[in-house]
Amino acid sequence: MSEKQHTFEEITSHLVTSGFVYPGSEIYGGLSNSWDYGPLGALLKNHVKDLWLRHFVRGIEYNVQIDPAIIMNPKVWEATGHVANFHDPLVDCKYCHARYRADQIIHEQKSELDVDGMTQEQLNDVMQSGQITCPSCGKSEFTPIRQFQMMFKTFIGVTEDKQSVVYLRPETAQGIFVNFKNVMRTTRRKLPIGICDIGKAFRNEITPGNFTFRTREFEQMEIEFFFKPGEDQKWFEFYKENCKGFVEKLGLKDEKVRFRDHEPAELAFYSSATTDIEYFFPSLGWGELMGIACRGDYDLGRHMSSSSQDLTYLDPEDNTKYIPHVVEPSFGLDRLMLALCCDAYDVESLNDGKDERIVMHFAAEIAPYTVAVMPLSNKLNDQAKKVFDMVHTEYDAIFDTTGSIGKRYRREDAIGTPLCVTFDFESENDHCVTVRERDSMSQERVAIDELNDYIHRFVSKNRVK
Ligand code: ATP
Question: In 27, 72, 191, 290, which residue has its Cα 20 to 30 A from 110's Cα atom?
Fold first, then answer.
């Protein structure tokens, strides 16, 4: 691997040109930092979700998965406080009218201040003190902070009036809380239980940006883990360990990942502890990938009083009744994918600097394609295609027939395919193919009959346990 640092722009432009990500609605000029995943991004996303499901749902005996709706009864968001409080502090530059989130711009220019612990008045005081300058025109006069509701509103049914207002969910978690009773009843499980969900969330961010790091539509992978009050610390530590294990399986470099415990002032009022997992993004610095929060009985308690439904749990062990407490590990899938791409990207020099290759060092398990199958000559297409068909039943694979083999290897390196399989003229006689490995570029002759087993062993060997 090279020691060279690559910029965020270099990496994200590679992601766009190679088909991981496309600008959203591109033929109409795009839409304010919205992005679509291309074939490679969609495969990468599937593999990260699969790994999350295997690690957190299948891998933890207490856990189950559900798939709740995006549009929920608006009373949900009144109960949770989102209608009243899910706001961002918005300011405009009085000169050039550029728009900013007060907490973000203060954090960028006065990193010594703990913005997460500041009230709106305190943020306003800093904005009005003349210490913050507008990044676009350099002046220091801003409008007072206005609170900007971040939930997307729409209407349900045919009438567009107050009664028909609904929101696109700003987090997946509440679909879990409102189904707590249903899941307990239908699964007949006891506590502890983890209810897991992967799905889209929507936030009308004031300043989306930095590619897919902050967008208005994104996917979350969340767990609400319910247990008896008093066991908070035990399950908090349990999930910290499990999240660490998950991040290791993804193959992110250790030195680029950190766990950051929230200071008391930064904690939400209902949270007794929160830890973020952060990644050191090129050019951007540390950014949050996920948060693990102890949420106590806040959410179930709010839903219980707003819905007038009994959401308590009768503990069969000691016949006590209580509202379960919760630990919430919440991953942002898109940010995680961006971190994985930044982590995997490298440009390596070859042949004593005469040549170079772009290579994405994805863990074999999550790379978009596991295998590329290539006939050495077009005359061998039909036989090579049979090998491809065999591999393709088991793995995401690509059949590539164009350009020299060297060029095809480079192409696969650049999208992170761990194995290339070449069918050559010898293959017809010895029923073997050449398998070339992405990182070491070493080659090996493998019998076609044993190819799927070989790939299976390769993926397992490269898996972090
Ligand atoms: P931030 O402080 O970056 O706005 P947050 O603390 O509000 O994030 P949470 O509500 O804890 O985020 O959401 C859990 C995860 O969802 C985050 O760690 C992040 O990975 C992801 N996420 C949140 N907002 C966005 C967004 N606008 N775009 C992409 N991912 C997001």
Answer: 290
In a domain, 382, yes or no: yes
CB 332 less than 6 A from any atom of ligand 1: yes
Same domain assignment for residues 138 and 175: no
The model's pTM is: 0.93
Which contiguous run of DSSP H or E holds residue 313? strand 313-314
Ligand 1 atom closest to 215 (CA): 28
- The answer to whether residues 215 and 333 belong to one domain is yes
pLDDT tens, position by position, 344-372: 999 999 988 899 999 999 999 999 999 99
Residue 356 lies inside a defined structural domain of this protein: no
Q: What is the pLDDT of residues 71-88, one digit of tens each?
A: 999 999 999 999 998 998
- Residue 362 within a domain: no
SS3 assignment, position 32: coil
> Count of alpha carbons within 13 Å of 405, Cβ hemisphere only?
15
Looking at the structure, do residues 67 and 92 belong to the same domain, yes or no?
A: no
Triad 321, 322, 323: Cα angle to 5°: 145
Q: What is the pLDDT of residues 218-259, one digit of tens each?
A: 999 999 999 999 999 999 999 999 999 999 999 999 999 999
Considering the domain architecture, whether residues 73 and 91 belong to the same structural domain is answered as no
User: Where in the sequence is the domain holding 417, given as residue range(s)?
Assistant: 369-461
Ligand 1 touching residue 339 (CB < 6 A): no
Distance, C-alpha 48 to centroid of its chain: 8
> In the beta sheet, which residues pair with residue 167?
153
* Closest residue CA from atom 29 of ligand 1: 214
Average pLDDT over all residues of the chain: 95
